[in-house]
Amino acid sequence: MDGPTEPASILAPAAVDDTAGVAVVVVTYNSAKVLPGLLDSIPDGLAGISRHEIIIVDNDSHDASVDIALAHPTHPRVIRMGRNAGYAAGINAATAIVGSEVDVLILNPDVRLLPGSVRLLSKRLSDPKAGIVVPQILHEDGTTALSLRREPSMKTAWSDALLGTTFAARIGAGEIVDDPAIYDRGGVVEWATGAALLVGARARRVVGEWDESFFLYSEEVDYLERVRRSGLSVVYHPQAQVVHIGGEYHDNPFLSALMTKNRIRYYRRHHGRLSTALFRLSIVVGETMRFTFGPGHRAALRAALTL
Predict the structure, then answer these.
(1) Using N-to-C axis directions, what is the helix angle for 253-270 and 273-289, rounded to 10°?
(2) Any idea what DSSP says for residue 293?
(3) Residues 6+ apart with CB under 8 A from 232
(4) Residue among 81, 91, 87 at smallest CA distance from 204
(5) What is the maximum alpha-carbon separation in the chain?
(6) pLDDT score, position 20
(7) HEC states along 81-135?
(8) 170 has pLDDT over 70
């Protein structure tokens, strides 16, 4: 792994607050189309945060991701992994050079911060019971993304398989949380998609590194479960908002298969052989019912059958 290049941005011309600092961590892989928009949004997103550092970890992109980062006026520190090491490994490479007293804001490169969003997250993180705070995620058209999730279970898996994720979410039985009241008022949740997470320093010290064996997908499910198991909470804060483009896995058979494999692997870590077999069967049944809907469903079915 190549060492860091370019000095990190340490101080921002914003009003002083009482945070120990925030490190913004972005893992890139062929992200040249979306990275400029994120970097452009960071200064306003960090308004009110007096100390910050921006770290771009590049997983051996074959486009201009690194050049864009190095040339951007926010002057991020860039870590070149030299290989596609995965999302969790990229996060670990960045946090390894961040002080243990610093909160870490993990962002996908296709996220856009809205003004003042990070300060709102940081203020909510001041609650000693909070380990991670997540923002409200918006689609590009301004509507609220269903970013909150329930812990994977037999109920959620079979509900999603037999009813479809949209209807299962609507009646409160699936893994996706679709309750407008929760998205409006905020509060403690089980987990949320990993597009934007503010990980508190106390959670970092207790939980440690991200599990690199997942490579991509389910690593945030695993990390947030470990945070909850440590006695800290995952908190959803709707007043802090970001925009997320997202959605690539729906059209990518490789990513659909990888997501499916990691869902089963994560469930297997916490349940016995019979329960895991029934969990996997739910995926097989669901994807078989949707086999004609597209290559992503067919890839997910093959992954569930061959894992």
Answers:
(1) 150
(2) G
(3) 129, 130, 131, 132, 200, 202, 203, 206
(4) 91
(5) 57
(6) 74
(7) CCCCCCHHHHHHHHHCCCCCCCEEEEECCCEEECCCHHHHHHHHHCCCCEEEEEE
(8) yes
Give the model confidence (pLDDT) of 78-111 as tens digits: 999 999 999 999 999 999 999 999 999 999 999 9
Q: Is the pLDDT of residue 15 over 90?
A: no
Alpha-carbon span 140 to 145, nearest angstrom: 10
Q: Are 175 and 160 in contact (CB under 8 A)?
A: yes
Looking at residue 190, the DSSP 8-state letter turns out to be: S
Q: Which pLDDT belongs to residue 138?
A: 97
Q: Are 42 and 12 in contact (CB under 8 A)?
A: no
**In this structure, are residues 56 and 26 in contact, taking their beta carbons and an 8 Å threshold?**
yes
How far, in whole angstroms, is CA 260 from its chain's centroid?
17
State both tokens at 288.
């078989």
Per-residue model confidence (pLDDT) at position 150: 97
* CA–CA dist 33, 284 (Å, integer): 35
List phi, psi (to 5°) of 93: -65, -35
Query: Rounded to whole angstroms, how far apart are CA atoms 17 and 50?
Result: 6
Give the chain's end-to-end CA distance (angstroms, integer).
31
Which of 67, 69, 45 is CA-nearest to residue 56?
Answer: 69
The token pair that represents 154 in the structure block: 């037999």
Cβ distance 38 to 2 under 8 Å?
no
Tokens 């960090």 belong to residue: 46
Calpha distance 112→123 (Å, rounded)? 20
Mean pLDDT, rounded, for 20-34:
95
What are the contacts of 274-279 at 24+ separation with CB within 8 A?
A: 275/154, 278/154, 279/152, 279/154, 279/157
**Confidence check: pLDDT of 305 > 70:** yes
H or E segment at 187?
A: strand 187-189
C-alpha to C-alpha distance for 233 and 162, rounded to whole angstroms: 31
Tokens 């997320």 belong to residue: 244
Query: 173: closest CA among 191, 190, 155, 189?
Result: 155
